[in-house]
Design a protein that fits this description.
- Helix content is 20%, strand content 29%.
- It is of the alpha/beta class.
- A seven-stranded mixed sheet has the order 8-7-6-3-2-1-15, with helices on one face. A six-stranded mixed sheet has the order 9-10-11-12-13-14. A two-stranded antiparallel ribbon has the order 4-5.
């Protein structure tokens, strides 16, 4: 079976190489600083390890959503102008235009592989907060990657719901690799977590039967309440410590 290579650039941004196809998740390239969101701001504390001009060509961007700057910042928006395809939510595709394409829940796009065959990208649900808050946080999507001779890979996007994970597991479990956005995001708008806690990420991985786990989006922003120091203990406590690949920025792993 072909492997997946993950290079973690920072925040939600990673390069995924699978079956000869090169993908980028949620592009964020701006330096640290404040990023306005309406009448408030999100504060970025760690910059990406490469600039948008250093990423190199990709076949597609997997964009979980466009409405929050910690998932798509100004540099990320500029980067989208030069990519052949961005798969994202319907709302984001309408706002972004260009090569952005809506990928609805359970629909799929087949990307050609250089050696023949295709990589299938399936849109899957994500819920950016507790029940009943989508009108505040906006729509988000996740993705599942699959194909003949390829590992099945789940990319969560900003998701806080284990019920959503159970629905995805009902169709795809067990998965070979789970790329899970964590960070236990909190903001004053909603009195609950907007993404999975470290314990929640471990439970999500268990629900999916994931053989290997790579966390993303767990550091680099002031509104994250958990991160690197809580992920390893959470996965160890769930008996999944040997499956966890907690990368340093700029680090990569073949899975």
């Amino acid at each position: 079976m072909s492997s997946l290579n993950v290079r973690y650039l920072g925040g939600p941004t990673a390069i995924l190489e699978i079956g000869g196809v090169r993908l980028l998740t949620d592009p964020t390239f701006d330096p640290p600083g404040d990023h306005p969101v309406g009448d408030r701001a999100l504060t970025k504390t760690i910059g990406a390890v490469v600039g948008r001009d250093e990423v190199g060509p990709v076949d597609a961007v997997l964009l979980s959503h466009d409405q929050h700057p910690d998932n798509l910042d100004a540099g990320g928006r500029a980067y989208l102008g030069g990519v052949p395809l961005t798969l994202t939510t319907e709302a984001a595709a309408e706002r972004l235009g260009g090569t952005a394409r809506a990928l609805l829940n359970w629909a799929h796009a087949d990307l050609p592989r250089p050696g023949g065959g295709t990589l299938r990208v399936t849109g899957v649900p994500a819920q950016h907060g507790p029940d009943g808050t989508e009108h505040i946080t906006g729509p988000v999507t996740g993705f599942v990657l699959s194909g003949e001779g390829l590992p099945t890979v789940y990319v969560s996007g900003d998701n806080a719901s284990l019920d959503v994970v159970r629905a995805i597991a009902g169709r795809f479990a067990p998965v070979d690799v789970a790329v899970i956005f964590a960070g236990a995001v909190r903001t004053p708008l909603i009195d609950d977590y907007l993404t999975l806690t470290s314990d929640g990420a471990a439970e999500a991985a268990a629900i999916l039967g994931a053989a290997k786990i790579v966390p993303l989006h767990f550091e680099g922003w002031a509104h994250f309440t958990q991160g690197r120091d809580t992920l390893a203990p959470a996965f160890a406590g769930a008996g999944l410590g040997d499956r966890l690949h907690l990368l340093d920025q700029g680090g990569d792993v073949a899975l």
